[in-house]
């Protein structure tokens, strides 16, 4: 039985880009456009109506920007299964941090290649965080510049096993499940089990929040490398 395609809602205020992204998605056998939105408010409304698997969200849109729309979507318990991938032409730090705080699962630049975009949608749907390499580097630098506070998150990291801590460090480095499995010489199924345990122990919505937890607790010592 052929699995159902990943359904994607495209939210962007530029008609040509919306149309181009829809064509790109529909050309992939495992992806499909669920709908398109031109404003932030419309993106929220259509997400509630259509229940897509992934929302490709632009930032600068009229009628409520993409950050606010992302916040409203991720705060809605009825939309818990929906993942938001922010697609922007700007890699300004305030946009990246605002998108993550709003609950986005990843941040990709609009100059990404078509194959990178399709892979990002698939990985986002699979529960993996996705960041453009330049953005991942700046995220690490941002969190390294902050003092590590011995708070609740630090205590919760103490409940992790040694293997879970290793997996968390690799997740923070932007590695996929397949890449983590290869690095640790374990099965992909085992990696998924460890990631599931990390999500539960750290009360994280998705891998993007695991990435932040790793940075905040000093598990990453340089751009994308475990400390």
TrEMBL record:
Residues 7-125 form the Response regulatory domain. The modification 4-aspartylphosphate is found at residue 58. Keywords: DNA-binding, Phosphoprotein, Transcription, Transcription regulation. The keyword rRNA-binding does not apply. GO terms for biological process: phosphorelay signal transduction system; regulation of DNA-templated transcription. InterPro entries: CheY-like_superfamily, NreC/VraR/RcsB-like_REC, Sig_transdc_resp-reg_C-effctor, Sig_transdc_resp-reg_receiver, Tscrpt_reg_LuxR_C, WalR-like. The keyword Phosphoprotein applies. GO terms for molecular function: DNA binding. This is Response regulator transcription factor. It comes from Jiangella ureilytica.
